[in-house]
Amino acid sequence: MDDSTSDISRTALVLLVCIACVTALAPPSTVGAPNDGEQTYVITQGDQEIEIVPVGNGTQTVEEFYDYRTPETHDPPDYLYSSYGTTEYQEDDTSVLMLYEGSDGLSLILLHDKLEGDTRGGSITMQIDGLPEEGEWVIEDDTYTDYGGPLDSFDHDGTSSRITWIWSEGRSDGGAFNGGLDGEDWEITIEPYFNENADYRYEDPVGYDGQVDDWKVISGDGESFTSTSLQSIDEPITITSGGTPEMSISGLSTTPSSAGPGETVELRADVANAGDASGTFDIEFTSAGEVIDTQSVTLDGGESEHLATELTFDEPGRYDVGVNGSTTSVVVIEEPSEVSGENGTSGNETGENGGETDTQGPPSDDGLSGFGVLAALLALVATLAIGWARRTE
Fold first, then answer.
1. pLDDT tens digits for range 259-309
2. How many domains does the chain have?
3. For residue 73, what are the domain limits?
4. Are residues 375 and 365 in the same domain?
5. Of 92, 130, 174, 358, which is most buried with the most CB atoms under 10 A?
């Protein structure tokens, strides 16, 4: 080997070793990028608070979603004067309240009883105050003009409405308010008057004298929803904006940072809710871009939780692992690392409450905790490689 070839070989070897050292010593990534959650709202009645999210996916207007049908709106004529689009939310002898997120923004929907259900009809009056000035009742179920018009009455005065619904057996009733609800600066109050307490109750002929005995609030969740009964059908409620949950991920790391084939590696992350409302987040742990574990965590605003999962690798190499799009790497070498503490916990012991106590002291400010042994090993390799190169001159 001539001198120029020897110099090139030595230089290439040294560069290769240095690159390996830098790669191995790269700190794990930390990310605080938020993941915006859904806007929440709070229904309050006395000491009961129910946090909800709107139903709907924004593809239909509230009028399309509600699908109110009368002989004046549908051919062939429909004489049930009811909402056909909300049947999955309707219940016998029950009044339902929900918020709907549609292509025309947020709407308040009120529904009473069940279309073609086992009901004898009923009557309800509600005094509704605090409605946004720019909004309107886009659905008044019922307001038809044929056959002498409905028994319902819709009286509006600025930001207040007093509505009385009267319906017969096998039908539903209700209404929808749209406009001005997409902001957070509003508070709506509803004072209920059910059954005999309604402003007007029609009991002749028979078929209008049913009893509504439950008042429920609907909360959407993707393709599903939940319904929660209010504690009273006689007490007023308020509806207010509850804020927005916001997910943040930090402290992404692996323990140990290097391992042997088949050795267990723990992937860790801190999940926080940086928003101002409670939220449930699905946390995906990935390896080589594939989801290997999913954990769900519910956090109040400002709350955080430490999550972890375990994984193993069969072959030596460098593997990218991550949590919800944030990634770091773990190096698998031929021989298992010797950084594990007693019981293979890398010096981390489980405390009385299931948390972990780090017996190795706090991590260094530069975020390189856990890389010392690997760095020393690679430095030794570099020294031996340079010595070998010099002997071949």
1. 999 999 999 999 999 887 778 899 999 999 999 999 999 998 899 999 999
2. 3
3. 40-243
4. no
5. 174
pTM: 0.61
Return d(Cα 129, Cα 127) in angstroms, integer. 7
The residues near 368 (Cβ < 8 Å, ≥ 6 apart) are 25, 27
Instruction: List pLDDT tens digits, range 125-138.
Output: 999 999 999 999 99
Please give the structure tokens belonging to residue 362.
């706090």
Q: Is the Cα torsion angle 329, 333, 337, 340 positive or negative in sign?
A: positive
**What is the C-alpha separation between 393 and 390, in angstroms, rounded?**
5
195 and 269 inside one domain = no
> What is d(CA 290, CA 336) in angstroms, rounded to the nearest whole number?
24
- The candidate with the shortest Cα–Cα distance to 277, out of 38, 17, 4, is 38
Listed range (41-45, 73-77, 185-189) with the worst mean pLDDT:
73-77
What are the tokens at 165? 């619904």
Same domain, 188 and 96: yes
- The verdict on 20 and 108 lying in the same domain is no
In a shared domain, residues 14 and 91: no
Q: What is the largest CA-CA distance in the chain?
A: 114
CA distances in angstroms from 140 to 23, 154, 270, 281, 382, listed in the order given: 66, 7, 49, 37, 80
Cα 370 to the chain's mean position, in Å? 34
